[in-house]
Write a structure and sequence with these properties.
single chain, Four Helix Bundle (Hemerythrin (Met), subunit A), Arc Repressor Mutant, subunit A, 257 residues, two-stranded antiparallel ribbon, mainly alpha
């Protein structure tokens, strides 16, 4: 019987991308997270006013200054709008710039599988072209970085070390982006990667998915190393197909249409 991952386990991590150890969150970070949870969870709906700063400070046992800084952070993410004299109001999700929060609210509204498939669509748009450009522009250092990441994936796969496997899977795709020699590409992709990281850690629990990923990464590397832009694009496109197929087979439990 094939291993599988429960759909509810995928793309639902409250803080996607938090695989690497990070500094202890500040009180402001904790307040931002708490308010984000209330907004994403629907307790504070679009168009609704947040409680006043003193009330929020009391609810969260923090200072009013901490609440003010948290609201400023949420406003910078497009999640709330501060209207002087009127209050602070939740903005609709389509106006948010925080991809992690948007992923969470869309998961609540449409289900994790729909969000996962939407993310794969975006990845295909970006990464197929990136693979082609990387093949045309790659340096020997880029190829070495790709090979190093792939070799580390294989070792982690063989050892059953899922966390390390995911780390180097992400490193491989970073190396493809760097190989494009376009300074804006990694910045565009970074918010998406934060959504992907925890999801990959969940799906990569399945041994067959790790095997498929290694095979497809080998094909991508071969095409990029040989300078075959068309072949690299085709290999990355096939990898996106594999990702979608594995999602349907091992997470959704039904074949892809």
């Amino acid at each position: 019987m094939s291993a599988s991952v429960e759909p509810s386990e995928v793309y639902l991590s409250p803080y996607p991308g938090s695989m690497a150890r990070s500094p202890r969150p500040s009180r402001v970070d904790e307040a931002v997270d708490a308010l984000t949870d209330r907004i994403v969870g629907g307790e504070l709906a679009a168009g609704e006013a947040l409680p006043g700063q003193w009330e929020l400070a009391e609810q969260m046992a923090v200072s009013r200054l901490t609440v003010r800084e948290a609201i400023t952070a949420l406003a910078a993410k497009g999640m709330v709008e501060v209207q002087p004299g009127n209050g602070t109001f939740v903005r609709p999700p389509h106006e948010w710039s925080d991809l992690s929060a948007l992923s969470r609210v869309r998961t609540r509204e449409t289900g994790s599988s729909r969000v996962a498939l939407s993310v794969i669509e975006i990845r295909r748009m970006i990464e197929v072209g990136a693979a082609s450009l990387c093949a045309a522009r790659r340096t020997s250092e880029d190829v070495d970085a790709l090979r190093s990441a792939l070799d580390a994936m294989v070792r982690a796969r063989d050892a059953g070390d899922v966390a390390t496997f995911v780390t180097h899977d992400l490193a491989f795709h970073h190396a493809v982006l760097r190989g494009c020699a376009n300074p804006f590409l990694a910045l565009v992709y970074d918010p998406l990667e934060k959504v992907l990281a925890s999801a990959r850690e969940q799906t990569s629990q399945v041994a067959a998915i790790r095997d498929h990923a290694v095979d497809h990464h080998r094909a991508i590397l071969a095409a990029i190393e040989s300078g075959d832009a068309e072949g690299a694009a085709a290999a990355m496109d096939a990898h996106m197909d594999q990702t979608a197929d594995d999602l349907h087979t091992y997470v959704l439990g039904r074949p892809r249409d």
